Protein: Ovarian-specific serine/threonine-protein kinase Lok
Amino acid sequence: MDETENLQTQTQTQNSQVEWTQNTPTFIPNIWGRLYSTKVTLSGKHCWNTSDYPEYLDLIQPEFRLGRDLTCTFPVRKNMVKENIIKNISKQHFIIKRDLLEPLNPAIITDLSYNGTFVNGEKIGKGNSRVLDDGDEIAITHALVKVFVFKDLLKNEQDRVPKEISQKYYISRTLGQGACGTVKLVYDKKLCTKHAMKIIKKSRLTNGQKNHLNDPEKIMNEIIIMKALRHPCIISTEEVFDSKDTVYIVLELMQGGELFDKITKRGCLSESLTRFLFRQMVLAVKYLHSQGITHRDLKPENVLLESKQDETLVKITDFGLSKFVGEDSFMKTMCGTPLYLAPEVLKANGQKCYGPEVDVWSLGVIFFVCLVGYLPFSTEYKDLSLRSQILSGKYFFSPSHWKNISLQAKLLMKRMLTVQVDRRITLDQILNHAWMQDADVIIRVEKMLSNVAQIKSFSQLTVSSTSDEENYSNNNVDNVTVIRLVATGKRALSDTSSSCEPIPKKLRVAFPNKGEDTDLASSNYSE
Structure:
């Protein structure tokens, strides 16, 4: 064969290989877990027959089912296990499921048997489920008949938290990050319930100085207070774990997201919807005040919704953080951008010389944003500095935004955004205000809260201390020019964000149309 023929042959061979490769793509399965076989039985002999038991099974599909039924993913046959074991195995003994659309969710095992499925020696119980974690041992028919050891190939951050936490909770994805730390989605391993865990690094807030976070006795006192709070519109605290460097607060999880997100998605809320949601906020803050707690950081990011529906339960969160970190640290970390802060808080300069009336002002800003979808105070309004706007009560009033808002709503807003504390409207007066007097809304809210109070079981708060070292190291408005304003870092406890970085919070800052007569209006109320 001459050189030309040889070159043609090589070219044809290469072309043939290219065509084969293109027509037969290589499939690489996504293995999310593995079941390694064990050998211990009641008699101490091998569970699996020597020649037939599998060394391991790869978990690829979202479901793995074991039992005697031939339709199971892994049908157990007589030649595979000892006779005294197989006679007690159900046709459908257990099933392991994992949501592959959300890879950081855990694998969950459900017991389908009459004779029992066990995880780490504990019986699950027919029809019950529990979360599988890396290294968990699975037994069938008896706690000693261990058949598999589960290997989690999507293992997340279990080894980055103290053992007291990882033994009880499966750590999933990050829900948000903010000034006070990180929020993780966690699962109770035995109950398979979702929670939010706020992780507060002490060094981040104390700068090495003596602080409430460094004092176990003060932490215990604040936990006792948080334990006692029981209201349908207040986020419940499940557990608190205190370690040398970090405080872990396990909280109730809300599925509907933040009020902030609902406002930004819609541009603004109707007066009817605002009335329904706002009444719950006022009732929640009134309850906190009755317990001697001033929130001091009320804003739409700290108002969470139970569902995506309009008529949903509202819950206030982050009401205890100032208690944990102390006044000075709280003001420096939480209130860096004082968009929702009352004038007296700015005057205080980190010293607590103001009362619960500050929460009424913050409610007024939230009320303002709900109705018109833009911030009343902002650095973008150049006539006055942000501090001067708040101290003088000069909010930005855009007629094009407020033209369809009722007079009573405007009056209520002014009463809340009143600089003089002794003239500012009270919470009881808000509830009795003419704008709030909608019998249908009142009945619907009261009925919803009553139903929640009846079915809600408040689990007893437990406190654990650990010395383990941690590795956890636009919507456009017609004819209005809109500027996006970065507000605060995302600190949601809601199950709506998969970002592990702080997400800038943005709200519209309204500017007038050409020829529109607007100004910074005074909120000081006069009878």
Observations:
- The chain has two domains: 33-155, 255-462+474-522.
- The longest strand covers residues 169-178.
